[in-house]
Protein backbone atom coordinates (compact mmCIF):
# COMPACT_ATOMS: atom_id res chain seq x y z
CA UNK A 1 0.00 0.00 0.00
CA UNK A 2 1.53 3.33 -1.04
CA UNK A 3 -0.31 5.40 1.58
CA UNK A 4 -0.19 8.63 -0.41
CA UNK A 5 -1.23 11.76 1.44
CA UNK A 6 -3.78 13.77 -0.55
CA UNK A 7 -2.82 16.85 1.50
CA UNK A 8 0.95 16.74 0.95
CA UNK A 9 0.85 19.21 -1.93
CA UNK A 10 -0.88 21.78 0.33
CA UNK A 11 2.41 22.11 2.20
CA UNK A 12 5.19 23.77 0.17
CA UNK A 13 7.76 22.87 2.81
CA UNK A 14 7.34 19.19 2.05
CA UNK A 15 8.62 19.51 -1.50
CA UNK A 16 11.39 21.87 -0.35
CA UNK A 17 12.49 19.39 2.32
CA UNK A 18 12.26 16.44 -0.06
CA UNK A 19 14.38 18.33 -2.61
CA UNK A 20 16.98 18.76 0.13
CA UNK A 21 16.92 15.05 0.85
CA UNK A 22 15.10 15.48 4.14
CA UNK A 23 12.34 13.19 5.39
CA UNK A 24 10.33 15.06 7.99
CA UNK A 25 9.03 12.82 10.76
CA UNK A 26 9.03 15.29 13.66
CA UNK A 27 5.58 16.85 13.53
CA UNK A 28 4.99 16.30 17.25
CA UNK A 29 7.78 18.84 17.82
CA UNK A 30 6.43 21.28 15.26
CA UNK A 31 4.31 20.84 12.15
CA UNK A 32 4.85 22.26 8.66
CA UNK A 33 2.40 24.92 7.46
CA UNK A 34 -0.06 24.73 4.58
CA UNK A 35 0.00 27.38 1.83
CA UNK A 36 -3.21 28.85 3.29
CA UNK A 37 -1.34 29.75 6.49
CA UNK A 38 1.61 31.22 4.57
CA UNK A 39 -0.86 33.29 2.50
CA UNK A 40 -2.56 34.59 5.64
CA UNK A 41 0.77 35.66 7.17
CA UNK A 42 1.93 37.38 4.01
CA UNK A 43 -1.53 38.84 3.41
CA UNK A 44 -1.54 40.52 6.79
CA UNK A 45 1.91 42.05 6.39
CA UNK A 46 1.47 42.92 2.71
CA UNK A 47 -1.86 44.67 3.24
CA UNK A 48 -0.55 46.82 6.10
CA UNK A 49 0.44 45.71 9.59
CA UNK A 50 -1.33 47.50 12.42
CA UNK A 51 -1.74 47.09 16.14
CA UNK A 52 -4.95 45.58 17.50
CA UNK A 53 -7.55 47.05 19.90
CA UNK A 54 -5.86 50.47 19.78
CA UNK A 55 -6.26 52.27 16.52
CA UNK A 56 -9.36 53.67 14.85
CA UNK A 57 -7.71 53.72 11.43
CA UNK A 58 -8.61 51.23 8.70
CA UNK A 59 -5.54 48.97 8.98
CA UNK A 60 -5.99 48.83 12.77
CA UNK A 61 -9.65 47.98 12.42
CA UNK A 62 -8.86 45.33 9.82
CA UNK A 63 -6.16 43.73 11.98
CA UNK A 64 -8.44 43.76 15.05
CA UNK A 65 -11.25 42.14 13.09
CA UNK A 66 -8.99 39.36 11.80
CA UNK A 67 -7.40 38.87 15.24
CA UNK A 68 -10.75 38.64 17.01
CA UNK A 69 -12.01 36.44 14.18
CA UNK A 70 -9.44 33.83 15.21
CA UNK A 71 -10.68 34.04 18.80
CA UNK A 72 -14.22 33.27 17.62
CA UNK A 73 -12.94 30.43 15.43
CA UNK A 74 -10.93 28.95 18.32
CA UNK A 75 -14.03 29.14 20.54
CA UNK A 76 -16.03 27.23 17.89
CA UNK A 77 -13.18 24.79 17.36
CA UNK A 78 -13.21 23.83 21.04
CA UNK A 79 -16.94 24.39 21.56
CA UNK A 80 -16.25 26.99 24.25
CA UNK A 81 -19.33 28.83 25.52
CA UNK A 82 -17.97 32.18 24.35
CA UNK A 83 -14.95 33.75 22.60
CA UNK A 84 -14.28 35.51 25.92
CA UNK A 85 -13.14 32.11 27.21
CA UNK A 86 -10.25 32.05 24.70
CA UNK A 87 -6.96 33.68 25.71
CA UNK A 88 -4.02 33.99 23.37
CA UNK A 89 -0.66 33.12 24.89
CA UNK A 90 2.77 32.41 23.41
CA UNK A 91 2.00 28.69 23.48
CA UNK A 92 1.18 25.82 25.81
CA UNK A 93 4.21 26.51 27.99
CA UNK A 94 3.24 30.11 28.60
CA UNK A 95 -0.40 29.14 29.20
CA UNK A 96 0.54 26.69 31.95
CA UNK A 97 2.93 29.19 33.52
CA UNK A 98 0.13 31.75 33.44
CA UNK A 99 -2.12 29.28 35.29
CA UNK A 100 0.51 28.31 37.84
CA UNK A 101 1.01 31.98 38.66
CA UNK A 102 -2.57 33.16 38.22
CA UNK A 103 -4.08 30.49 40.47
CA UNK A 104 -1.36 30.60 43.14
CA UNK A 105 -3.36 32.63 45.65
CA UNK A 106 -6.03 29.91 45.78
CA UNK A 107 -3.72 27.37 47.42
CA UNK A 108 -2.70 26.89 51.06
CA UNK A 109 0.34 25.03 52.41
CA UNK A 110 -0.37 21.30 52.42
CA UNK A 111 -2.81 21.46 49.48
CA UNK A 112 -2.14 18.93 46.76
CA UNK A 113 -1.51 19.47 43.06
CA UNK A 114 -1.84 16.29 41.02
CA UNK A 115 0.00 15.65 37.77
CA UNK A 116 1.05 12.40 36.09
CA UNK A 117 4.33 10.60 35.51
CA UNK A 118 4.23 11.25 31.77
CA UNK A 119 4.02 15.03 31.77
CA UNK A 120 6.12 17.18 29.47
CA UNK A 121 8.29 19.61 31.43
CA UNK A 122 5.80 22.32 30.41
CA UNK A 123 3.13 20.64 32.53
CA UNK A 124 5.47 19.67 35.34
CA UNK A 125 7.90 22.48 36.13
CA UNK A 126 5.38 25.32 36.54
CA UNK A 127 3.44 23.19 39.10
CA UNK A 128 6.63 21.95 40.77
CA UNK A 129 7.83 25.52 41.22
CA UNK A 130 4.43 26.65 42.46
CA UNK A 131 4.46 23.77 44.97
CA UNK A 132 7.89 24.87 46.20
CA UNK A 133 6.79 28.52 46.51
CA UNK A 134 3.64 27.71 48.49
CA UNK A 135 4.64 24.51 50.34
CA UNK A 136 2.12 22.46 48.39
CA UNK A 137 2.45 18.74 47.76
CA UNK A 138 3.01 17.65 44.16
CA UNK A 139 1.38 14.25 43.72
CA UNK A 140 2.43 12.21 40.67
CA UNK A 141 0.01 9.65 39.22
CA UNK A 142 1.85 6.54 38.04
CA UNK A 143 1.41 4.79 34.67
CA UNK A 144 0.55 1.28 33.68
CA UNK A 145 2.58 -0.79 31.18
CA UNK A 146 0.66 0.48 28.17
CA UNK A 147 1.54 4.09 28.97
CA UNK A 148 -1.79 5.06 30.49
CA UNK A 149 -2.27 6.95 33.72
CA UNK A 150 -3.22 4.23 36.20
CA UNK A 151 -6.85 4.83 37.21
CA UNK A 152 -6.74 2.48 40.19
CA UNK A 153 -3.90 4.51 41.69
CA UNK A 154 -5.57 7.76 40.61
CA UNK A 155 -8.65 6.82 42.66
CA UNK A 156 -6.39 6.45 45.70
CA UNK A 157 -4.29 9.55 45.09
CA UNK A 158 -6.96 12.08 44.11
CA UNK A 159 -8.59 12.96 47.40
CA UNK A 160 -9.94 15.72 49.61
CA UNK A 161 -6.61 17.59 49.66
CA UNK A 162 -6.45 17.70 45.85
CA UNK A 163 -6.90 21.30 44.75
CA UNK A 164 -5.83 20.93 41.13
CA UNK A 165 -5.30 18.20 38.53
CA UNK A 166 -3.12 18.95 35.48
CA UNK A 167 -2.66 16.20 32.90
CA UNK A 168 -1.82 15.69 29.25
CA UNK A 169 -4.49 14.62 26.83
CA UNK A 170 -2.03 12.72 24.62
CA UNK A 171 1.52 11.93 25.65
CA UNK A 172 4.32 13.32 23.46
CA UNK A 173 6.42 10.23 24.24
CA UNK A 174 3.93 7.40 24.60
CA UNK A 175 1.31 8.39 22.02
CA UNK A 176 -1.79 7.37 23.97
CA UNK A 177 -5.00 9.18 24.73
CA UNK A 178 -5.19 9.44 28.48
CA UNK A 179 -8.36 8.51 30.41
CA UNK A 180 -9.43 12.12 30.82
CA UNK A 181 -13.13 11.51 31.41
CA UNK A 182 -12.42 9.40 34.49
CA UNK A 183 -9.56 11.57 35.77
CA UNK A 184 -11.44 14.83 35.41
CA UNK A 185 -14.50 13.32 37.12
CA UNK A 186 -12.33 12.23 40.07
CA UNK A 187 -10.89 15.73 40.40
CA UNK A 188 -14.25 17.46 39.99
CA UNK A 189 -15.74 15.25 42.71
CA UNK A 190 -13.15 16.78 45.07
CA UNK A 191 -13.93 20.32 43.91
CA UNK A 192 -10.45 20.58 42.34
CA UNK A 193 -9.58 22.71 39.33
CA UNK A 194 -8.66 20.80 36.16
CA UNK A 195 -6.10 21.66 33.51
CA UNK A 196 -5.65 19.67 30.29
CA UNK A 197 -2.44 19.99 28.29
CA UNK A 198 -3.70 19.58 24.74
CA UNK A 199 -0.35 20.33 23.06
CA UNK A 200 -0.29 16.92 21.37
CA UNK A 201 -3.98 16.07 21.40
CA UNK A 202 -5.43 19.22 19.83
CA UNK A 203 -4.30 18.40 16.30
CA UNK A 204 -5.85 14.94 16.23
CA UNK A 205 -9.57 15.33 15.70
CA UNK A 206 -11.89 17.86 17.29
CA UNK A 207 -12.14 18.26 21.06
CA UNK A 208 -15.11 19.64 22.91
CA UNK A 209 -13.98 21.29 26.12
CA UNK A 210 -17.49 21.40 27.55
CA UNK A 211 -18.06 17.69 26.94
CA UNK A 212 -14.59 17.03 28.39
CA UNK A 213 -15.58 19.00 31.49
CA UNK A 214 -12.22 20.67 32.14
CA UNK A 215 -11.66 24.13 33.59
CA UNK A 216 -8.69 24.89 31.35
CA UNK A 217 -7.43 23.44 28.07
CA UNK A 218 -4.39 24.63 26.18
CA UNK A 219 -2.58 24.01 22.90
CA UNK A 220 0.11 25.57 20.70
CA UNK A 221 -0.63 26.79 17.19
CA UNK A 222 2.67 25.55 15.75
CA UNK A 223 1.78 21.89 16.34
CA UNK A 224 -1.60 22.44 14.64
CA UNK A 225 -0.13 23.50 11.28
CA UNK A 226 -0.28 27.15 12.38
CA UNK A 227 2.48 29.71 13.00
CA UNK A 228 4.64 29.64 16.09
CA UNK A 229 4.56 32.29 18.81
CA UNK A 230 0.91 31.79 19.68
CA UNK A 231 -1.16 29.36 21.66
CA UNK A 232 -4.68 29.13 22.97
CA UNK A 233 -5.73 28.89 26.57
CA UNK A 234 -9.38 28.03 27.01
CA UNK A 235 -10.79 28.75 30.46
CA UNK A 236 -14.33 28.05 31.60
CA UNK A 237 -15.87 31.42 32.52
CA UNK A 238 -16.08 30.76 36.29
CA UNK A 239 -12.55 29.34 36.37
CA UNK A 240 -11.12 32.31 34.44
CA UNK A 241 -12.73 34.67 36.93
CA UNK A 242 -10.51 33.16 39.66
CA UNK A 243 -7.28 33.91 37.78
CA UNK A 244 -5.04 36.65 39.12
CA UNK A 245 -3.60 39.03 36.53
CA UNK A 246 -0.03 38.23 35.72
CA UNK A 247 1.49 40.52 33.10
CA UNK A 248 0.82 44.22 33.20
CA UNK A 249 1.02 46.79 30.45
CA UNK A 250 -0.78 48.10 27.41
CA UNK A 251 -4.42 47.36 26.63
CA UNK A 252 -5.15 45.31 29.74
CA UNK A 253 -6.46 48.13 31.95
CA UNK A 254 -9.73 50.05 32.16
CA UNK A 255 -8.12 52.97 33.95
CA UNK A 256 -4.66 53.62 35.32
CA UNK A 257 -3.21 56.32 37.57
CA UNK A 258 0.31 56.60 38.98
CA UNK A 259 -0.84 54.81 42.12
CA UNK A 260 -3.36 52.22 40.97
CA UNK A 261 -5.05 50.54 38.04
CA UNK A 262 -8.26 48.73 37.29
CA UNK A 263 -7.82 45.75 34.99
CA UNK A 264 -9.90 44.15 32.28
CA UNK A 265 -11.12 40.63 32.89
CA UNK A 266 -10.51 37.82 30.37
CA UNK A 267 -9.48 37.74 27.68
CA UNK A 268 -7.88 41.18 27.22
CA UNK A 269 -6.80 41.50 30.86
CA UNK A 270 -4.50 38.53 30.24
CA UNK A 271 -3.03 39.75 26.97
CA UNK A 272 -0.86 42.68 28.03
CA UNK A 273 1.20 44.33 25.30
CA UNK A 274 1.18 43.82 21.56
CA UNK A 275 0.27 40.21 20.85
CA UNK A 276 1.59 38.01 18.03
CA UNK A 277 -0.91 39.52 15.59
CA UNK A 278 0.28 37.84 12.39
CA UNK A 279 0.55 34.48 14.13
CA UNK A 280 -2.96 34.75 15.56
CA UNK A 281 -4.27 35.54 12.07
CA UNK A 282 -2.26 32.61 10.71
CA UNK A 283 -3.74 30.35 13.38
CA UNK A 284 -7.17 31.35 12.10
CA UNK A 285 -6.12 30.19 8.63
CA UNK A 286 -4.83 26.89 10.10
CA UNK A 287 -8.15 26.29 11.87
CA UNK A 288 -10.00 27.08 8.62
CA UNK A 289 -7.74 24.70 6.73
CA UNK A 290 -8.20 21.87 9.22
CA UNK A 291 -11.92 22.54 9.59
CA UNK A 292 -12.41 22.11 5.85
CA UNK A 293 -10.68 18.73 5.69
CA UNK A 294 -12.55 15.45 5.75
CA UNK A 295 -11.76 14.54 9.39
CA UNK A 296 -12.50 10.85 8.87
CA UNK A 297 -10.14 10.73 5.88
CA UNK A 298 -7.37 12.42 7.87
CA UNK A 299 -7.83 10.10 10.83
CA UNK A 300 -7.90 7.07 8.49
CA UNK A 301 -4.70 8.13 6.72
CA UNK A 302 -2.89 8.82 9.99
CA UNK A 303 -4.05 5.50 11.44
CA UNK A 304 -2.83 3.56 8.39
CA UNK A 305 0.57 5.30 8.56
CA UNK A 306 0.81 4.62 12.27
CA UNK A 307 0.10 0.91 11.73
CA UNK A 308 2.84 0.80 9.10
CA UNK A 309 5.23 2.49 11.51
CA UNK A 310 4.44 0.06 14.33
CA UNK A 311 4.65 -2.97 12.03
CA UNK A 312 8.02 -1.85 10.69
CA UNK A 313 9.43 -1.33 14.17
CA UNK A 314 8.05 -4.66 15.41
CA UNK A 315 9.71 -6.45 12.48
CA UNK A 316 13.19 -5.33 13.56
CA UNK A 317 15.21 -7.23 16.11
CA UNK A 318 15.99 -5.55 19.40
CA UNK A 319 13.61 -2.61 18.92
CA UNK A 320 11.76 -1.84 22.12
CA UNK A 321 8.72 0.40 21.89
CA UNK A 322 7.94 2.70 24.79
CA UNK A 323 4.45 1.78 25.94
CA UNK A 324 1.79 0.88 23.40
CA UNK A 325 1.32 3.96 21.22
CA UNK A 326 -2.10 4.18 19.59
CA UNK A 327 -1.66 7.11 17.22
CA UNK A 328 0.55 9.85 15.86
CA UNK A 329 3.96 8.70 17.04
CA UNK A 330 6.13 5.91 18.32
CA UNK A 331 9.13 6.21 20.62
CA UNK A 332 11.63 3.41 20.71
CA UNK A 333 14.99 2.29 21.85
CA UNK A 334 17.24 -0.37 20.34
CA UNK A 335 18.92 -2.98 22.50
CA UNK A 336 22.64 -2.26 23.03
CA UNK A 337 22.51 0.84 20.82
CA UNK A 338 22.73 4.35 22.27
CA UNK A 339 19.91 6.54 21.01
CA UNK A 340 22.31 9.44 20.37
CA UNK A 341 24.45 7.27 18.03
CA UNK A 342 21.40 6.05 16.20
CA UNK A 343 20.00 9.58 15.96
CA UNK A 344 23.30 10.77 14.52
CA UNK A 345 23.28 8.13 11.77
CA UNK A 346 19.62 8.84 10.95
CA UNK A 347 20.32 12.57 10.74
CA UNK A 348 23.24 11.92 8.39
CA UNK A 349 20.82 10.12 6.09
CA UNK A 350 18.35 13.02 6.09
CA UNK A 351 15.85 11.53 8.50
CA UNK A 352 14.37 14.24 10.73
CA UNK A 353 13.24 12.49 13.90
CA UNK A 354 13.62 13.48 17.52
CA UNK A 355 16.03 11.85 19.92
CA UNK A 356 16.65 12.34 23.62
CA UNK A 357 14.44 12.79 26.64
CA UNK A 358 11.64 14.64 24.80
CA UNK A 359 11.34 17.22 27.60
CA UNK A 360 10.08 14.47 29.89
CA UNK A 361 13.20 13.59 31.91
CA UNK A 362 11.34 12.15 34.90
CA UNK A 363 9.37 9.87 32.56
CA UNK A 364 12.60 8.63 31.01
CA UNK A 365 13.97 7.95 34.49
CA UNK A 366 10.80 6.03 35.36
CA UNK A 367 11.27 3.94 32.22
CA UNK A 368 14.93 3.40 33.08
CA UNK A 369 16.14 5.06 29.87
CA UNK A 370 18.49 7.91 29.09
CA UNK A 371 16.48 8.70 25.98
CA UNK A 372 14.65 7.34 22.99
CA UNK A 373 14.07 8.01 19.31
CA UNK A 374 10.63 9.37 18.43
CA UNK A 375 9.07 9.18 14.97
CA UNK A 376 6.00 11.39 14.69
CA UNK A 377 3.57 11.80 11.84
CA UNK A 378 1.66 14.65 10.25
CA UNK A 379 -1.21 14.44 7.79
CA UNK A 380 1.25 15.23 4.96
CA UNK A 381 3.45 12.20 5.59
CA UNK A 382 3.04 9.21 3.36
CA UNK A 383 4.24 5.65 3.04
CA UNK A 384 7.42 6.64 1.21
CA UNK A 385 8.54 8.71 4.21
CA UNK A 386 8.33 5.60 6.35
CA UNK A 387 10.09 3.49 3.74
CA UNK A 388 12.95 5.99 3.70
CA UNK A 389 13.03 5.96 7.47
CA UNK A 390 13.18 2.17 7.67
CA UNK A 391 15.85 2.01 4.96
CA UNK A 392 17.96 4.47 6.96
CA UNK A 393 17.26 2.67 10.23
CA UNK A 394 18.45 -0.66 8.80
CA UNK A 395 21.65 0.90 7.48
CA UNK A 396 22.33 2.62 10.79
CA UNK A 397 21.76 -0.54 12.79
CA UNK A 398 24.01 -2.52 10.49
CA UNK A 399 26.80 -0.03 11.20
CA UNK A 400 26.18 0.11 14.93
CA UNK A 401 25.95 -3.61 15.63
C1 LIG B 1 2.62 17.31 25.78
C2 LIG B 1 3.27 18.64 25.58
N1 LIG B 1 3.01 19.63 26.41
C3 LIG B 1 3.54 20.86 26.27
C4 LIG B 1 4.41 21.13 25.24
C5 LIG B 1 5.00 22.50 25.13
O1 LIG B 1 4.55 23.14 23.97
P1 LIG B 1 5.19 24.51 23.51
O2 LIG B 1 6.67 24.29 23.42
O3 LIG B 1 4.56 24.77 22.19
O4 LIG B 1 4.84 25.53 24.53
C6 LIG B 1 4.75 20.12 24.35
C7 LIG B 1 5.71 20.36 23.26
O5 LIG B 1 6.29 19.47 22.71
C8 LIG B 1 4.15 18.84 24.50
O6 LIG B 1 4.43 17.83 23.67
Task: Briefly summarize what is shown.
By secondary structure, this protein is α/β, with parallel strands linked by helices. Helices cover 40% and strands 16% of the residues. The protein has two domains: 8-25 and 294-400, Aspartate Aminotransferase, domain 1 (Alpha-Beta Complex), CATH 3.90.1150; 38-291, Type I PLP-dependent aspartate aminotransferase-like (Major domain) (Aspartate Aminotransferase, domain 2), CATH 3.40.640.10.
Tertiary shape: globular
**CATH architect. name of the largest domain:** 3-Layer(aba) Sandwich
Helical proportion? 25-40%
C-alpha Rg, in Å? 22 Å
Helix/sheet category = alpha/beta
Count of structural domains: 2
The number of strands is: 15
Domain Aminotransferase class V: 23-389
Keywords: Pyridoxal phosphate, Transferase
Cofactor: pyridoxal 5'-phosphate
Pfam family, one: Aminotran_5
Written overview of the protein:
The chain is α/β, with parallel strands linked by helices. The protein has two domains: 125 residues, Aspartate Aminotransferase, domain 1 (Alpha-Beta Complex); 254 residues, Aspartate Aminotransferase, domain 2, CATH 3.40.640. The protein is 40% helix and 16% strand. The chain contains 14 helices and 15 strands. The strands form four sheets. Strands 2-8-7-6-5-3-4 form a seven-stranded mixed beta sheet. Helix 8 links the parallel strand 6 and strand 7. Helix 2 runs antiparallel to helix 10. The longest helix is centred in the first third of the chain and has 21 residues. It starts with 11 loop residues before the first helix and ends with a helix. The model has no long low-confidence stretch (mean pLDDT 96). The chain binds pyridoxal-5'-phosphate (PLP). The site of pyridoxal-5'-phosphate has 12 residues, from helix 4.
